[in-house]
Amino acid sequence: MLKWTTYGLIFLINLFLGSFFEGEVGVKIDTPTEVVAGNEFQVKVTIDKGKIESFSRFLQELPAGLKATSVNSSNADFTFRENKVRVIWLKMPETESVTITYTIKVDPRLKGTFDLTGKFSYIENNERISIEADPVTVNISPNPDIDPSLIVDIHDFKEKVIPEITPTGEMPVACFRQKPYASGDEDNSYIVNLLVYKENAQKFAKIEEFLPAGFKAIKIDSKEGIFVFKNNSAKFLWMNLPSSQYFVVSYRLIPLGSVSEPPVLKGQFSYVVDEKTYVKDIIEKDVDLAALSNDDIKRLIDELKASSVVVPKEELVAEKVSQPTEVTEELPKEAKTKPKPVVKPKSEK
Predict the structure, then answer these.
(1) Is 309 helix (H, G, I), strand (E, B) or coil?
(2) pTM here?
(3) Looking at the predicted structure, is the pLDDT value of residue 11 above 50?
């Protein structure tokens, strides 16, 4: 009888503790503990959120020499900047547990160990509460293909290597326009191809082409951007740029009357890096952009001497409120023609 009473007591204690801790908030990091420099490894962060529904954030600071890329952010805004992983939810998912995953790329010159930790913060009763994850120690083995004289301990990387690799100027971002050419169609239209070399730019960007009077513009390929034609201006807008280091967009110029020669165009490519806005003049080249190889494009970038100008951030932010739809003043939405395919550069095939 005593035996059953003891078992019953243990059962009741477990039941009570399980109810008491139900909904407790916690964060756990799962990741491999060994990696070879030059490779990448995946990090999984599991957050037991309980009944949290509002604004929340996961923050993780990485040593210099590591770069994080999102795999699955669970409907959050994932950013990696200044060696910090930030995952922000304006509204948490309804599930009691949330999992995010991302990869960390290790610079091939690294070696040594570091602790991977993180902090989950949320609001409760108008107060911010933060919970630290238990650290996971990761060991980086030297890359056997790297000259041993170039290998640096991860704790010394920022001091010894970063000053050598930090660019002294702006990223070599550029936008090239292929000289407009006749489409050969009955509408006497011209095709305009634009090649964007974006380097590591990722967020909001804009191409704006200033058209001469007497033409209207229709999108052919916007690479998932928003196309707008209004007041003799053709624009491509991106909230997030394509992942490719360079890509080609195109549009069709249709004359509203008779024309005797190709239109003369001017334009600018604007992009945002670290909350600063840069503007580049579009450079026109009498080349077939679709036929350029990777080496050809690199040569174009090397030849680029155009200067950069910082413009007020509001100039671009104002565009962000545009609805994600295509706008063409001259063509009603139901009358839009089907875009014609454009041959992609060799690297995109």
Answers:
(1) strand
(2) 0.45
(3) no
